[in-house]
């Protein structure tokens, strides 16, 4: 059985949600952030040099990085579900949005978090540039969701599992006003209503 090492308010929530969507049995090992520093506990460092979640154990395999874990579980345990294959018309969209989550959207919000903590003047060019990048990333998601119910098209996929974290839990660390993005707000609501998502949240 897969063991998921889950840190509260972290990207490991993606893995719990994925297993619930696929109906894959798993064991959950939960960790709490330091209430002051918000850093992960030393116990995670003992598991993997990054000292971050998610980490999974599957027999002799120990794997970190949420995107790698999602692909591993889908291919090894999920019979390819939630990942359109090359024959699908949704394949290119799936690949783009699956990798957009950690390749563009998440880094843009993390840079905004870092620069915001530097307490630069509101009109500082670095802050302006970083805000612009975050707004551009969000506007691309908004444009996609204005014409598609899910990121890869009409069908829910792992691209949605990868993306939702940045639009929900990540905002606990770097608040972003989603009022200008009605399609994103509607999408977040739809995802939060999925039974598997509700089950995952009740466990974490």
UniProtKB/TrEMBL annotation:
Residues 87-204 form the GST C-terminal domain. Its EC number is 2.5.1.18. Transmembrane segments: none annotated. It comes from the Bacteria. It catalyses: RX + glutathione = an S-substituted glutathione + a halide anion + H(+). One of its GO terms (molecular function) is peroxidase activity. Keywords: Transferase. SUPFAM superfamilies: GST C-terminal domain-like, Thioredoxin-like. Residues 1-81 form the GST N-terminal domain. Gene3D superfamilies: 1.20.1050.10, Glutaredoxin (3.40.30.10). GO terms for cellular component: cytoplasm. It is an enzyme of class 2 (transferase). This is glutathione transferase. It comes from Duganella guangzhouensis.
